[in-house]
């Protein structure tokens, strides 16, 4: 019977059993308190039902000891739940493991574009190997979307103007639904697809066979081509004629800015610098920047390609 | 011909209903009791309109395909359902109807502090309602009641502006009502009515008024900014112009989370009155209940970020909002335990209002406990924006607020109208509503944990069984809400006349005739004891 009437989704990621354990604890605590309240009310309601219209019960005022008890016990329980939830949340939303495989996701009313670093592109399908952490770097072309894989217990909003990331490790090969969980307009409910978790060997075959679309170039290569097309290389040179800072080995490094601050050159910083070069100018370069903005000139997907190229130029992996 | 100067026999004494007649006497009244009835008519209209949209939504969701209405229409249905129910029913229902009628009566005042401002509040509410109705008539709005940017500010092609103006205007009504209550409670209490002799209904409205005054301007600003962004593209929320979409969420939830307490605190206030009366017992832990209302109002302002755990806000912010949200559970639990303890050794009777009150405790307990699930960071990541959330807030806002509102309406109906409704039907309706409610919303918790996102017009087939259960429950619930409407109207004409104090309740409102005279008290009462003084001595005094 439970086949057709499940109470839990599948547990297909390393987070799933942990989230379910906490959920199970909360269900247990809730059932206990619901049972307690219902039982007390039922017992009192029957035992102390009004027997005659003139009946006046003896007064009971209250009890400080009882009040303190039912403040302290729930407080203790919720603090335990808070701590447990916070530790798990930090694991889920903290940085992905270093060895994670990076995949780029762009949401758009109403589909998901997925780009693998090796160049494969997919729409509304995400192929990943089992048993290896996967890090999604996500952007949106228009409104807020949210990438949600119930069987993995993971979800993260995809917000215009920034990159959000999400990581998970799928544990079992299979097909799992993903959804858009943030209302995004007319076809919001149709903006979903499948995560296809494959055995690592099969995944290698899938990559080799070209999977969704036979890639002619990797993501970084596409980014390099774009870098040339947009003539970025005329300024970002590595000889002494440079008008812009050198980009080799930049990714993940700390960068000193003209205003004295220091920032880490992560995806968000690279993205911002392409779209709004004046925002954070590197120390030693003129302000306002001579670099034109690429806001509106390139798509989120192309941005991700550029970022992938810049990452391929080396630097500290984060 | 001369007119005979014979005084006509007075068939009944003057009360606020028969003191004057005609439509003008209602539209220009400054009597808080009449204004309460004006609100009663308006919120009832909006309730059934919002309910009609809910019925269409549940019909659509009987099948996984979007076969009843188009997705565009579906999105407008759930948005209009949310906007109307929240801004035009749940927020005003208890304060504007029951609060308006009862606050002056309960503290021994002849009216609210600013009677004309009170009438103005109703006109503002009505004007705002007309704008939102106009938006509905012209095709509706499809942003969801949360108006998240940049969808609402840039991408939506629906009547965002008209709806936003409607909500903006209505906000002023809320602010003015809160202001009126605060001044009234501070300045117009009868002699002897000290703060700790106030009925807890008044404490609840006091806390609510604080939220109304401090919170409402923030949502008004947020909505104003969405309007400006739509019209002039000023770049507050649009990242292409240097704005931040998350800023809107912060502004919106800074009001809209406390708004939940605007709905539930007055509901808790009603429950205090019902539980004490029908167990004929002084409330257990009066000061703990009073202060828990204030604690909820204050903490309510510190927890808005728990709507944004998956939004990409800092994980440390998430941690702070999570722990603060957990703290709100404590004053809520204090109330539930004290209500339960009030029954202990009482003299419990099961008149219809008491059934609603017990139903409230049940639904509120489930709604409150599932709130902890959502406050728990890692669990929220999974259930955020799923039907789990839908179920949770319906348990609190619909289960809690409407059960209390209906319970209060039944309790004070004889006072308000001077008529008694049929008790059997009222008990039957309470039962139907309780069963229908649970059948509608409990399956949605399971649906949510299984992963069905909210605001879905089409959904995978595996979710259908639970959706059909929910829709079946909704039809029972719908019938449950119609029954009281029928017998209440019936009672106006055919109901027996109500005595001054049909329940044997305490409180100043029960000392005046039913319905009360235009100025409530011919002689200002003097309060000499605590509220809920259901003691053998006081009964003896009453008998003498």
Report on this model:
The complex is a heterodimer of chains A (318) and B (544). Chain A has six helices and twelve strands. The mean pLDDT of chain A is 88. With 318 residues, chain A is of the alpha+beta class. In chain B, 68% of the residues lie in helices and 0% in strands. The interface between A and B is large, with 88 and 96 residues.
Measure the end-to-end span of chain B: 54 Å
Radius of gyration of chain B: 24 Å
- Average predicted confidence as pLDDT of chain A: 88
State the assembly state of the protein chains: heterodimer
Percent of residues in helices of chain A:
25-40%
Which residues of chain B sit in consecutive blocks of at least 5 with pLDDT less than 50?
A: none
Helix content of chain B: 55-70%
The best one-word shape of chain B is: globular
Q: How would the global form of chain A be characterised?
A: elongated
The DSSP helix count of chain A reads: 6
Count of DSSP-assigned helices of chain B: 16
List how many beta strands of chain B DSSP finds: 0
Distance between the termini of chain A: 47 Å
Given the helix and strand composition of chain B, which structural class is it? mainly alpha
What is the gist of this entry?
Chain A has 318 residues and is an alpha+beta fold. Chain A contains 6 helices and 12 strands. In chain A, the strands form 3 sheets. In chain A, strands 3-2-1-5-8 form a 5-stranded mixed sheet, covered by helices on one side.
Give the topology, please:
The complex is a heterodimer of chains A (318) and B (544).
Chain A: H1 16-47, H2 64-93, E1 101-108, E2 111-115, E3 121-123, E4 125-129, E5 133-140, E6 145-149, E7 154-158, E8 164-169, E9 174-180, E10 193-198, H3 200-209, H4 219-229, E11 254-256, E12 262-264, H5 267-275, H6 300-312
Parallel strand pairs in A: 1-5, 4-10
Antiparallel strand pairs in A: 1-2, 2-3, 5-8, 6-7, 6-9, 9-10, 11-12
Helix pairs in contact in A: 1-2, 4-6, 5-6
Chain B: H1 23-27, H2 32-60, H3 71-107, H4 115-137, H5 151-155, H6 160-187, H7 200-232, H8 245-279, H9 286-300, H10 315-343, H11 352-375, H12 377-383, H13 387-417, H14 423-450, H15 464-494, H16 536-543
